[in-house]
Specification:
With 458 residues, the chain is an all-alpha fold. It has 20 helices and no strands. About 2% of the residues have low confidence. InterPro entries: MFS_dom (IPR020846), MFS_sugar_transport-like (IPR005828), MFS_trans_sf (IPR036259), Myo-inositol_Transporter (IPR050814), Sugar_transporter_CS (IPR005829).
Length: 458
């Protein structure tokens, strides 16, 4: 493939800014999903029943499912830039409104609305960022987005812990409202973000694409560079149904299944983690908040080695071996649930370390395997399916621990992880070092290995 202005560009301050703005959405996702878990037990003045308490926790996940599924497609239809800022207004307004709620049903509705906005951000932000990044840095930078999620979760535990100790019974209102502060900051920072030139070209808006590229790349945005982008992004009239047809159906199945099968055990470990840390006297009260923050930091640390390997080792071997290795500590926990604390902690740390590969690939694979016209749609579908896994991991794990015990429950998690390994061995492609248009293109019948845009190799 010939030189591409975007794919072959040097990494600039503009790209760093785009990453920071996009990472803001993942920070808020981690913050908003975690902060409610910190303070939900303190909402006693709402007079909630057990089912209402559960719905407050579940409503954001349901909203994420809807937001990803709906707004992924909307983003591909109307563009990335407008929605990139607008949905943060919803998050800020709903967070402030949460401070004044006196009815559990209204709280459920607000959390659902926040979830929709967060689900939209997965599709909007990842599509826009990937379409601006040079190929040499795309894997590492896209992978770093998940790290912002764990930073946000850790920040939520820190803020919640502080407010509970300072403000007592009113802490939950201020904790939920606190999300408005970063939301407003990112609204201001995102104003003026340029539209994706790839999307503009796919819509035939060539003059606007030329203006955007000139704004970012200056004199490098030559007529030849624009012509190359036009060749890459010529519209083919792809719609929502395209991600469920032919080769793209295979890719949708891969992205959705590996994301789902990773999230179920990961959220289970998030729930199981405080139980492990209880051995150190951190099982009750504010100690559990500190323990949860430490868990987030462990998973954050697990992403670091994966980021070093993503562009040297490759996408396919990283995800295949990660799933294989993730199953080992889960199996040990399942076969020896009464093992010494040191063994349990080693297993926990090993799982967090090995989970880094699939975690960073959640944002890489969906954006590299689908063309611009359906890229946000595909991310939205993957996000929606993954939220099913989050719900399963969060709400069925306690049932398993109660009815069949920790050992069998962890063995089930190990089996789910092994199923993810099988999916990756069968379906995972290699997209390392490819131009975005090349990795997302469907191979033509009879193409050689070198000509295939996303070969299952490695």
């Amino acid at each position: 493939m010939r030189s591409s202005l975007i794919d072959d560009a040097r990494f600039r301050p503009f790209h760093r800014k785009m990453f920071a703005l996009t990472a803001g959405g993942q920070f808020l996702d981690g913050y908003l999903l975690s902060i409610v878990g910190v303070v939900v037990l303190g909402m006693s003045d709402l007079g909630m029943s057990a089912s209402e308490e559960g719905m407050i926790g579940a409503s954001a996940l349901i909203g994420l499912f809807v937001g990803g599924l709906v707004f992924g497609r909307v983003t591909d239809r109307i563009g990335r830039q407008l929605l990139f800022t607008l949905h943060f207004v919803v998050i800020a307004a709903a967070s402030v409104a949460s401070m004044f709620v006196s009815d559990p049903a209204l709280m459920v509705a607000l959390r659902f609305l926040i979830g929709i906005a967060l689900g939209a951000d997965y599709a909007i932000g990842s599509a826009l960022l990937s379409e601006w990044l040079p190929k040499a840095q795309r894997g590492r930078v896209m992978g770093m987005l998940i790290m912002a999620w764990f930073v946000g979760a850790t920040a939520a535990y820190a803020v919640g812990y502080t407010l509970i100790n300072v403000m007592g019974t009113e802490a939950w209102r201020w904790a939920l409202g606190s999300a408005a502060v970063p939301a407003v900051a990112f609204i201001i920072a995102r104003i003026g973000t340029p539209e994706s030139p790839r999307w503009l070209v796919s819509r035939g808006r060539l003059d606007e694409a030329q203006a955007v590229l000139t704004r970012v790349y200056g004199k490098e945005a030559t007529p030849e560079a624009i012509a190359s982008l036009v060749d890459d992004e010529t519209s083919r009239g792809l719609g929502f149904a395209e991600v469920f047809r032919g080769e793209y159906l295979r890719r949708t199945a891969f992205v959705s299944l590996f994301w789902l099968l990773q999230i179920v055990p990961l959220f289970a470990i998030y729930t199981f983690g405080p139980t492990i840390l209880s051995a150190f006297g951190m099982s009750a009260g504010n100690g559990s908040i500190i323990g949860s923050a430490l868990i987030s930091l462990l998973f954050l640390a697990g992403c670091l080695p994966a980021l070093r390997l993503i562009d040297t080792w490759g996408r396919r071997p990283l995800i295949v071996w990660s799933f294989a290795l993730m199953a080992v500590p889960l199996a040990v926990l399942g076969l020896a649930p009464t093992a010494p604390v040191a063994v349990v902690l080693v297993c926990f740390c090993a799982y967090a370390l090995f989970s880094g590969g699939p975690s960073i690939l959640e944002f890489i694979y969906p954006t590299e395997l689908f063309p611009t016209e359906v890229r946000a749609t595909a991310v939205g579908v993957g996000t929606a399916v993954s939220r099913i896994g989050a719900a399963i991991g969060t709400y069925l794990l306690p049932v398993g621990l109660d009815r069949i015990g920790a050992g069998p429950t962890m063995l089930i998690m190990a089996l789910i992880t092994l199923l993810g390994f099988a999916v990756c061995v069968t379906l995972a492609p290699e997209t390392r070092g490819r131009h975005l248009a090349e990795s997302s293109r469907v191979p033509t019948p009879g193409a050689t290995s070198a000509e295939r845009p996303a070969d299952v190799v490695g």
